[in-house]
Specification:
- It contains 12 helices and 14 strands.
- A 7-stranded mixed sheet has the order 1-9-8-5-4-2-3, sandwiched between helices.
């Protein structure tokens, strides 16, 4: 019999907080016989809109599809330009290309990882139709300054709140003050439905159009036809080209449970981040923090490595060797093949953050002992400098 001590289980970078309540809600949706977009999707939309304090929420299949519909709703099309951060998952830029427009990459504030009015302004032209402002890693973007700059020019600010559920901007939930906002419910996000997304807006006609577009452009939804809401024998029409961007009732059932758990999730994540900050004090590493204008949900708990630290790849390898699954920092789209060479201005803060930051494990069930392992492994790696 071996006398060696078994290795401690690996620590993942993220685990969604899912349990028996979500399993029961999903099973009930299955037992109901209505698993496609239906009454639970409508209930999830109402609950999400109420949580934000906005008039309209439209559930869709992902945040990417939410961004696509948001840009269509903003009137963006071929020949237009849309200012976006390069420091974002590539879906932000890709959604712009889906509508035939050109993504124009702006730099970010090195502390928050977000666009600012100052980084956006040099890139505005007569062709600028929209700006996509991202709440990167859950840190609320300062939307007011960007809107004050952009909207007088006739352009729309679309808030990419993919990471933002549970974050707060100027006393209100992230996205609540946006003309159009898009959310993600991917498993890496705080609130998850497995896959899924949401578009929120203030314009009732726009919301109605987005509901049609997510369902092939149908004038009467399949759910309404089958439920008889539009009258028996109603024949739908298809007045514009739409998409298959629907959410299922199974996903929405999970989302309703998750929404009820959101305050507890945020409180736990913020407590864990505060403890990381204490454990890493004095190392020179800079952990992402709340901006002056709001609070973050710590969807991604990223830190910037200190000057003189080993190469980020070496640090990640050392963490992996200790059973800690960290990740590289937020990607920079302008360095990836589809967009390489398209940046119109230097992006120094973007390149610093994408090359010198990493994401630490943070999830609801993370224990103090696991956190100690994470920081111990990180400190060992930094000492090698």
């Amino acid at each position: 019999m071996s006398s060696t001590t078994p290795a401690a289980p690996a620590i993942p970078v993220m685990l969604p907080w899912l349990g028996e309540e979500e399993a029961a809600a999903a099973a009930e949706a299955v037992r109901s016989g209505w698993v496609a977009q239906g009454p639970r999707v409508a209930a999830f939309e109402r609950a999400f809109a109420e949580h934000l304090g906005v008039p309209h929420a439209v559930a869709v299949s992902s945040c990417t599809t939410a961004l696509h519909l948001a840009l269509i709703g903003a009137g963006v099309g071929p020949g237009d330009e849309v200012v976006v951060p390069s420091l974002s998952f590539v879906a932000t830029a890709n959604a712009v290309t889906y509508v035939g427009a050109v993504p124009v990459f702006a730099d970010v504030d090195p502390a928050s990882g977000n666009l600012t009015a100052a980084t956006v302004e040099p890139l505005l032209t007569a062709r600028t139709k929209a700006v996509v402002a991202v709440d990167q890693g859950g840190v609320p973007v300062d939307l007011d300054g960007i809107r004050a700059l952009v909207e007088p020019r006739g352009a729309t600010v679309v808030e990419d709140a993919a990471c933002g559920a549970g974050s707060v901007y100027r006393g209100r939930p992230v996205g609540a003050t946006a003309a159009i906002a898009a959310y993600s419910f991917h498993p890496r996000k705080v609130l998850t439905t497995g896959e899924g997304g949401m578009v929120t807006c203030r314009d009732g006609e726009l919301a109605a159009r987005l509901r049609r577009l997510r369902e092939h452009g149908m004038s009467v939804s399949a759910a309404d036809r089958h439920a008889g809401a539009g009258g028996a024998g109603v024949l739908e029409t298809y007045d514009e080209i739409g998409f298959n961007y629907r959410m299922t009732d199974i996903q929405a059932a999970v989302g309703l449970v998750q929404l009820g758990k959101l305050p507890a999730m945020i409180a736990r994540r913020r407590a864990l981040a505060a403890r990381y900050r204490e454990l890493l004090a004095g190392t020179g590493a800079r952990l992402v923090a709340d901006p002056e204008h709001g609070t973050t949900n710590y969807q991604s708990c990223w830190l910037l490595l200190p000057d003189g630290a080993p190469d980020r790849g070496e640090v990640l390898a050392a963490l992996a060797g200790a059973g800690v699954s960290a990740r590289r920092g937020i990607m920079a789209a302008h360095l990836e093949a589809p967009y390489k060479g398209t940046a119109r201005v230097p992006l120094p803060a973007t390149e610093l953050l994408t090359h010198r930051s990493l994401i630490l494990p943070l999830y609801h069930a993370l224990t103090g002992e696991q956190q100690d392992r994470v920081t111990g492994a990180l400190l060992d790696a930094l000492r090698r400098s």
